[in-house]
Amino acid sequence: MKIINLNDNNTILNQFVSEVRNVEVQNDRLRFRRNLERIGEIMAYEISKTFTYSPKQVTTPLGTATVNTPDTEVVISTILRAGLPFHQGVLRYLDYAENAFVSAYRKYKDTLKFDIHIEYLASPRIDDKVLIITDPMLATGGSMELSYQAMLTKGKPAHIHVVSIIASQAAVDHIASIFPEDRTTIWCAAIDPEIDEHSYIVPGLGDAGDLAYGEKE
Ligand SMILES: O=P(O)(O)OC[C@H]1O[C@H](OP(=O)(O)OP(=O)(O)O)[C@H](O)[C@@H]1O
Ligand SMILES: O=c1cc[nH]c(=O)[nH]1
Ligand SMILES: [Mg+2]
């Protein structure tokens, strides 16, 4: 399994990741959502390097040009809520992609214990397509695991890109142990060392869904 941490190279991506983490900046919801989108745009560009391409003829006003364009069939799937702006960023570059939406939320039994509930799935068939599952946060990896299982009711993808912004080391290890080894790539912009007793990533950024859309009741 390939694990690609885009933080290994210094690019402008670091600025956007710094802003979503920063308590002085992250409460500007518009900027927070836009930064998730911008990171999604960069990730889409990086992932596009793995697609298959073939030459096509394009008629210009002055002649004919040959351009290699992608042939890969892509489904972009997102995990509600925090995945929405991230998904939007990825979709902005992969405009021919199909789309899927899964809801996953933590239902707390007490302040520390919770189950993850999947209640909604809207997806096309995914057989033999490239599945990109977007979620900015991978804490325990539980939401990603259950969302992927839900997606499998729609077929068997040719390849799975698990795309996040901040992943805990534990989540990366968990996903590497359960996703198909030869057909999965994990992309992230940071791997953080810990999760706390509430299963939040440390240092992380806090609650991505609340920062994007406001607190839940
Ligand atoms: O790896 P996990 O331990 O499952 O945690 C990560 C999940 O938590 C966040 O969603 P959350 O449950 O907060 O829902 P929200 O997007 O509606 O806020 C995040 O977007 C992931 O889906
Ligand atoms: O650190 C975390 C964990 C779960 N959900 C978040 O938004 N952040
Ligand atoms: Mg949340």
UniProtKB/TrEMBL annotation:
Pfam families: UPRTase. GO terms for molecular function: GTP binding; uracil phosphoribosyltransferase activity. The keyword Chaperone does not apply. Belongs to the UPRTase family. The lineage of its organism: Bacteria, Pseudomonadati, Bacteroidota, Bacteroidia, Bacteroidales. It catalyses: UMP + diphosphate = 5-phospho-alpha-D-ribose 1-diphosphate + uracil. Residues 11-214 form the Phosphoribosyltransferase domain. This is Uracil phosphoribosyltransferase. Keywords: Allosteric enzyme, Glycosyltransferase, GTP-binding, Nucleotide-binding, Transferase. Pathway: Pyrimidine metabolism; UMP biosynthesis via salvage pathway; UMP from uracil: step 1/1. It comes from Bacteroides coprosuis DSM 18011. Catalyzes the conversion of uracil and 5-phospho-alpha-D-ribose 1-diphosphate (PRPP) to UMP and diphosphate.
